[in-house]
Amino acid sequence: MELLTVPISKPEATNFILGQSHFIKTVEDLHEAMVGTVPGIKFGLAFCEASGKRLVRRSGTDADLIELASRNASAIGAGHSFMIVLGDGFFPVNVLNAIKAVPEVCRIFCATANPTQVVVAETDQGRAILGVVDGFGPLGVEAEEDVQWRKDLLRAIGYKA
Question: Pfam families from the entry (predicted)?
Answer without folding.
Answer: Adenosine_kin (PF04008)
